[in-house]
Amino acid sequence: MEAEFIKLYEENPEIDKIDKIVDVLRSGGVIIYPTDTVYGIGCDFGNVKAVQRVCQIKNTKPQALSFICYDLSEISAYTKRLSTPIFKVMKKVLPGPFTFILNASNKVPKVLNAKKKTVGIRVPDNNIPREIVRHLGNPIITTSIHDEDEVLEYSTDPELIFEKYRNLVDVVIDGGYGGNVGSTVVDCSHDELELVRSGLGDFDDLL
């Protein structure tokens, strides 16, 4: 069945459309959505079959996936040993274009941290994925949509994304053109800030 193409505006995402997307996620669906960096593909993080679908589409392993939380309080439920200095750093820059690698709590589904004890977590500065998470009641999986183009690393046009993935996913959200720079990845699992990948977020803002 072909994916549904849903237009949403970041400033004021329509609740009825958000609820429709949440219903798709709860039934094991896979969606493509905008963030504050690049478009992502994901699902309800607790649905094993949906996670496996995402991995098959992206040709990746569950342990390589991150997830999107609504805010810092939700992050604390899925991490352990979050020190005060690290919490203050995250509070300063979130929502924002950072992925923080943190020690996973036992609330993180086993499919995501079966072989490691850390998890990558995002709170993007975009109301669309955050409202989806808020209405869903738990995080969604996120991994970036990449492009085979030699110049553009990421797909930015939602209509072209739809053409490519219309038979692979259940919903493609048109939130306008996406960016072409991924999030900055920072490892905080040892209570220190270690830059893993430079991206849209300025690492100096964390120091």
Automatic annotation (TrEMBL):
Pfam families: Sua5_yciO_yrdC. Signal peptide: none annotated. Residues 15-201 form the YrdC-like domain. InterPro entries: DHBP_synth_RibB-like_a/b_dom, Sua5-like_dom, SUA5_domain. GO terms for molecular function: double-stranded RNA binding. This is Threonylcarbamoyl-AMP synthase. It comes from Roseivirga misakiensis.
